[in-house]
Amino acid sequence: MDIWEALAVFAAGIGAGTINTIVGSGTLITFPVLLAVGLPPVTANVSNTLGLVPGSISGAIGYRRELRGQRDRVLRLSAAALVGAVTGAALLITLPSAAFDMIVPVLIALALVLVVAQPRLARAIRRRRERDGGAAHPHGGPALLGGMALASMYGGYFGAAQGVIYLALMGLLINDDLQRINAVKNILGAIVNGSAAVFFLFVADFDWTAVLLIAVGSAVGGQLGARLGRGLPPTVLRAVIVVVGAAAIVQLVLN
């Protein structure tokens, strides 16, 4: 990797850390750059996962104010994310990617529909609970735990637009402010990337230069993303999610 390639990977790390903190889909920035500098696909994927861990942690720290009062929720969802992430990482090492290549754009498209429809769907769910005399589960209940485990399995496998899927699921099943939900998403992203990274350290090939460049860049980007994302009102944040998710679908289909 020459100096210009190294700068490109570093810049991609900053971009990925920023967009991951605000929405997700930072992998769609770094992964193509790693391929362009000559890394094989699996090595690029593993190196990318390792490198994005500091960015996820940085973004979570940047959103620490919005995490107040969410300890129980984070612990419950983190357990599901951990199981899913390790399972997905194991699948990356053992299975071909053809099946995931076909289903990922569909998953992202469904997540975008949920993000757009989330306010109306959430109101309908609340009205039904009120009519039936039931109360909303503060942490989303079993349905959210199962959905987050599956989403984290995908995250451990590849992870493009994983944050979009997280926001869609939590926004639908948790009655809370979107910025607070986004803060939880950043914690879960750190857990998924971190646990998958530990797994990869022992069983997969990776490029340390790429890992370090993305790690430093994504850590910087995580702080930038927290500052930018916190100032976005819910409607604008939803619009950003849709734009990023749509771009992810286009890139995945074209590739």
Automatic annotation (TrEMBL):
Organism of this sequence: Streptomyces chitinivorans
Family in the record: Belongs to the 4-toluene sulfonate uptake permease (TSUP) (TC 2.A.102) family.
Principal subcellular localization: membrane
TM region(s), chain numbering: 7-34, 46-63, 75-96, 102-122, 187-204, 210-229, 236-254
Keywords tagged on the record: Cell membrane, Membrane, Transmembrane, Transmembrane helix, Transport
Coiled-coil annotated residue ranges, if any: none
Subcellular location: Cell membrane
InterPro entries: TM_pro_TauE-like, TSUP
Domain of life: Bacteria
Protein name (database record): Probable membrane transporter protein
Bilayer topology annotation: Multi-pass membrane protein
